[in-house]
Amino acid sequence: MKLSIAYDNEAKKGFISGWGFSCFIATGDDSVLFDTGWDGCVLLQNLKAFGISPKDVDKVVLSHQHWDHMGGLTALLNANHDLEVYVPVSFSKRLKDEISTRARLVEVIGRQDICHNIYTTGELGKDVKEQSMLLDSSSGLYVVTGCAHPGLTEIMGVASQFGKVVGIIGGLHGTTEYNLLADLDLIACCHCTAHKEEIRKRFPDAHMEIEAGSILEL
């Protein structure tokens, strides 16, 4: 799998930064965009900088109903009229109704396949409902998070039911559950991660700096 970070607070030369997160995952057979950042113009420009057209996106997975993770959806829907959009079932009815007029809406409750070797944890959390994605590789599972609002204990607990977790990518918010990161081969935290420097110091071998424009191959 090839992951292209299409939206983040920081950006490489030739890409635009913005508060939010988006990651484009290509498997060779399918392509999934996880979250859309908040500014659709920035999202589309960054995808273009990768050489990715909006029409290259087959499916969109939205982690949670916060503007910095779903604001770019409208621009994407305007550019691609043949999308499947996966949202936690707790999304507001009005928002789900709006999305369903422009795309095929899939409401997520529990663990569900997105495509071959990519699936969602299902809706997790109490105060902020959120889903994470699981990428199944030959070396183990990689977790892709939006903000990890439900906490790593819940996210990693669910993920580990489906295999050995070897890496995590995305926003980790204010987590201090460092013990859950100790045995990972890859920790590529970005966006809202409050303690990124502490994570880097604790896990220098596993930590990887990522920003808009970064590419990871699993």
How is the topology of this model organized?
Elements: E1 2-7, E2 22-26, E3 31-34, H1 40-50, E4 59-61, H2 67-70, H3 73-79, E5 84-88, H4 93-100, E6 104-108, E7 112-115, E8 118-120, E9 133-137, E10 140-145, H5 152-159, E11 165-171, E12 186-190, H6 196-202, E13 215-217
Parallel strand pairs: 3-4, 4-5, 5-6, 10-11, 11-12
Antiparallel strand pairs: 1-2, 1-13, 2-3, 7-8, 8-9, 9-10
Helix pairs in contact: 1-3
Task: Please explain how this structure is put together.
It is a single chain. This protein has about 220 residues and is of the alpha/beta class. It has a single domain, classed as Metallo-beta-lactamase, Chain A. Helices cover about 20% and strands about 30% of the residues. Strands 6-5-4-3-2-1-13 form a seven-stranded mixed sheet. A six-stranded mixed sheet has the order 7-8-9-10-11-12, with no helix packed on it. Strand 5, helix 4 and strand 6 form a beta-alpha-beta unit. Helix 1 crosses helix 3. The mean pLDDT is about 95.
